[in-house]
Amino acid sequence: LDIYFVNGAASVPETGPPNQLYRNEGNGKFREVTSESGAGDTGFGVAVAAADIDADGDIDLFLANNGPDVLLINQGDGTFRRGGAEYGIADTNMAGGAAFGDYDRDGLPELYVSNYVDVAEFVEGGRGGPFCKWKGMTVGCGPRGLTGDPDRFYRNVGGRFEEASDEVGITLSDASYGLGILFVDLTADGLPDIYVANDSLANFFYVNEGDGTFSEEGLMRGVAYSGDGLEQAGMGVDAADVDGDGDYDLVVSNFSHDHTSLYLNRGEGFFTDVSYPSGIGKSTYFPLTWGARFLDLDSDGAVDLFLVNGHIY
């Protein structure tokens, strides 16, 4: 496996250092090949998603930016060709995350892009956001009061994309602040569903109906709010079979002074919040946790949880 790092910038709409691609040399070492591969991008990077979008056997990359998003088309010789509008990707919003999934099982992956807020509110001449006091400091109050940008669902048609959000039922995201995304089968029916972690608002769980549409069912399935019915500030998200019962469980990382949430799947995509009984709730209350990843770190066959913490102040 190779490694691709996304880089940001000091502020929107400035450019930053290029993203970095490290090629696995197969001997336990990596070599930085950004320039020779053409994989660098200096936009304000937020996330990267990887999939073979054109079914040619090579992994392509989608770069979600605060600004114009970018496709990097794998040429099969270790290099990438930059794409965008000609592939149906022309979004210039403030992206929060991206994920591929083959929702119609035709062998071509679709793309879901979460968007955060109207980028014009963060650049010179924009409306600006409200300010609050936090531990004696003047800081942004968070996304509430700012204009949310709708998420985007792109259907893959022969290796090109068509924006189809309304058509497939992705219609509730206009006022949301989307960040982390999962595009996996959470209901164990063989169809990939979509889960979106939203900042300061209820999270979305779009259930794949198998007829080309989704139904948002986060509340009824127990993953829109915390176990005590509160909105959280979702950031990172991942899924794995934590309890060994054969279906995906969920973890959602949140802002500081709120715990990371662990939801156990009770079957067919109905969940119970077990954050505190599991021990995760108490130990994760104070940090701002940007990212979460399930993996077996000690090779004992049990799923472990790695959390990435930071802050914005």
UniProtKB/TrEMBL annotation:
The keyword Magnesium does not apply. Signal peptide: none annotated. This is ASPIC/UnbV domain-containing protein. Transmembrane segments: none annotated. The keyword Iron does not apply. It comes from marine sediment metagenome. Keywords: Signal.
